[in-house]
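Please go through the sequence and fold tokens given here and tell me how the chain folds. Record follows.
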Amino acid sequence: MATVRRGMTSAMCVMFGLVWMTPAWGYQLGFPTTSDYSWTVETYLEKGLPPVDRVWTVGDFRKGQEVLEAACVFSAKHLPRFKSKHSGPVFARFISEENLAPALDESIDLELRISTAMGVFGAMHKLLPLYVRPQSKGERYDEERVEISSLRLKVVRVILKLKQSELDRLAEADPGRPEMEAKLDQLKGALSRIVINSLRDLEPDRRFRKQACITMAGYFNEIVPGVYSRLPERFQKDIAGRVRTLARSYPGSETARILDELAAKLP
């Protein structure tokens, strides 16, 4: 029992740290998409990247992050790209939902499932800035950032479900422990802020190019409703209000249509 409680506290500490570290760089309009100078899959593997033809563990993500950070020492243009003919399989492995399979496998111990989900979340959080920082040099990686952000939101959805299951199990085994529910509420607050920070990417002064906006809005429409229902009411109101405000920021556009559809799902 003590181990489970320590695990919940540890998860909260990690999540609070990640919220405050969430990148908030804005995008300037007009930069073209950066040309693809990424390496081949074989080159990344030679530099120590784990095999991309299997599900990654948290340790694999850690090693993969080290390889990409080393690549950025030379140039961010060597980062793997979404659907690239050179490095597409590498980027695809980083953002594959297959990596969440252990977290969704009910035959695995709940604590290990939570640890896996938290590990994938942390990996996405560390990966995202690598594609954001080059903006200061006029380089754009809109597609990559959209895909990383969308997986991060999907992991938030999984974490919320697993942590609720953990709380239910604790309540059944040791009733009369309201402080555990309070800790879960704090964690939900931290996750709510991550959703809010993701929505901010569509604010007019930070927005991606047109197609990236449409793609990101589509991901929000797919993912946010499943997250929204598990969040504290005070954050639900904030998120719903932001979605409606964002829709009004793109009058007559496909982005606005998708956001209006999302707003209708948020009471």
